[in-house]
Amino acid sequence: MGLLTVIRKNRQKEKEMRILFLGLDNAGKTTILKKLNGEDITGISPTLGFNIKTFAHGHYTLNIWDVGGQRTLRPYWRNYFEQTDALVWVVDSGDRMRMQDCKQELHSLLTEDRLAGASLLVFANKQDLQGSMTDTEIRDALDLRSITTHHWKIWPCSAVTGENLVSGLDWVVNDVASRLYYSSTTSLRAERSLAVI
Amino acid sequence: MSTSDDTTWSFSRTFTSQFQASRYALESRIAAASSKLSPSPEPIQELSISLANLTKTLAGATGSLPSYDQKQYELQLKELERSIEALRVSNVPKSKFAFKRRPAASTNAESPTSESSSTAIPPPLQTKNAPPSLPAASTHLSLSSHSHRYLTREDLPSHPAQSDLSISDLDHCIVNLLPSASSSGSGTDTPLIISALHARNLSDCVLLLPDVDGSALIHDLERCVVVLGCHQFRMHASSKVDVYLSITSNPIIEHCKEIRFSSYPAALAPSSVLEKDPASFSVQDFSHIRATPSPNYVMKDGTDTDVCEWPLATVSGEELERAIVRIVPHPSDQR
Ligand SMILES: Nc1nc2c(ncn2[C@@H]2O[C@H](COP(=O)(O)OP(=O)(O)O)[C@@H](O)[C@H]2O)c(=O)[nH]1
Ligand SMILES: [Mg+2]
């Protein structure tokens, strides 16, 4: 494929990662990505299908896939599993009524062969909302501590204020990098770079 | 900041022809594979990988292509993806192929060896790198488990002027949280600002809500009227609901039946609603993703269907009953 070579040449020095954003609908996946990308976050319609965003994070190129979370779309999630380096599971921290649903979907994802080994970042989004659950409450509601198959971390954030988005992404990129490109995590810590936007 | 700021990328045109060539090639490989009765897993895997590469290629060109083109290509790829998925499905027994790109940390997952469990969270990272704590919010505003009641802001537990709200398990209730409704009570109340709305399991209810400064997520409503403004509207598993909406994006429904949409009634509109452009939204039915119109909802145009008398004053007993019956969709309504 000639084209790929052209593009590869452009990015030879860069290392790519493929990150999949999943979660129930209304969690804030699209909003987080737009915010990270410096785009306007008003007037986002629910995602019918998927969005792809590519941006640089430090010296990594992130290909981020944002797939719609409506129940009818969830069976299609597995079409996106191939070559996933990291899974970012986004939670609407104010959605107490669906935490059970959220937990089940997450745990069933983690049994997928094709996601084996992917790092897992759980974004406890919408922390700006008055009634949102804390990251600790969500960690327990989703029973994250029972997860032994994936490196995971829960991170409170807000797509509206932008709080903690970059640092969360930073954790996941470093975690993937330490697995794919380095033998030890220590070497990378020093060069953590947060410049996304 | 995008990686595509390589200014040398005036290659939209080159891209297009090469992209299309790759796409056609892949398409014909898929066609070839599906003409065999039982394709072996390897070719399907290869197809997936080719598709993933092509998708990556497209993603890489983001920002360097006209957005319309980009969209079209994405659609084309989605189409291919569907064909590959169809192949995969038709290819029972399922392939046990697991992608072998990295030494999976999970191969030893089933056995709870000390190694796999200790890698779940590297402890030093956890402490050193703990996210800066955000204010721990513990309260949560909810209106739940009532029947045959007229409910206003006074029925809410004490709350800040701005909060997200959940409404659940109501039967035969009118919920009126319009700004005018609270002035009757404690006088100088600042209007309640709702930053997100969750509603679940309501039957024979009327919700009169102001402009929500965020999204509305609604489940399991039956025979209800919902008046509301919001940024996003998602309704699931509901039937016979009349929705009066002021919205800046496209409302979506899923697993819903007999839904009627109208715009927010001018008579009830708070100024924040009136300031918006007159609503012209188009509903998306996620349960009916095709070209034909969805049978699950209709758009009403305001004039002939507007409820002329909204139940704005507190009522109880039979009067409440009558007010509800008068405006909620009737169980036997034929549409
Ligand atoms: N208050 C608040 N609202 C948010 C936040 N993130 C997303 N939202 C809202 O939640 C709704 C759903 O967001 P969207 O990105 O479409 O969710 P998705 O279905 O996961 O892609 C939108 O109305 C957003 O404005 C957040 O951090 N805080
Ligand atoms: Mg979305």
Structure description:
The complex is a heterodimer of chains A (197) and B (335). Chain A has six helices and six strands. Chain A has 197 residues and is α/β, with parallel strands linked by helices. A six-stranded mixed β-sheet of chain A has the order 2-3-1-4-5-6, with helices on both faces. The model of chain A is unreliable at 183-197 (pLDDT under 50). The longest helix of chain B has 24 residues, at 12-35. In chain B, 31% of the residues lie in helices and 27% in strands. In chain B, strands 1, 2, 3, 4, 5, 6, 7, 8, 9 and 10 form a ten-stranded parallel β-sheet that branches. Chains A and B meet through helix 1, strand 2, strand 6 and helix 5 of A and helix 1, helix 2, helix 3, strand 2 and strand 3 of B. Bound molecules: guanosine-5'-diphosphate (GDP) and magnesium ion (MG). Guanosine-5'-diphosphate sits between chains A (23, 25-31, 44, 46-47, 69, 90, 125-126, 128-129, 158-160) and B (195-196, 214-215, 231-232). Chain B: It holds the Pfam family TBCC_N. Chain B: Belongs to the TBCC family. Chain B: Residues 104-120 have a biased composition (Low complexity). Chain B: One of its GO terms (cellular component) is cytoplasm.
Helices and strands in order, then pairings?
The complex is a heterodimer of chains A (197) and B (335).
Chain A (H helix, E strand, L loop, with lengths): L1 H9 L4 E8 L6 H8 L13 E8 L2 E8 L18 E7 L6 H11 L9 E7 L9 H7 L10 E5 L8 H16 L5 H4 L8
Parallel strand pairs in A: 1-3, 1-4, 4-5, 5-6
Antiparallel strand pairs in A: 2-3
Chain B lengths: L11 H24 L5 H20 L6 H24 L23 H5 L4 H6 L12 E12 L9 E15 L2 H5 L9 E19 L3 E16 L1 E5 L2 E9 L4 E3 L2 E7 L7 H5 L8 E2 L11 E3 L2 H4 L11 H11 L8
Parallel strand pairs in B: 1-2, 2-3, 3-4, 4-5, 4-6, 5-7, 6-8, 7-9, 8-10
Helix pairs in contact in B: 1-2, 1-3, 2-3
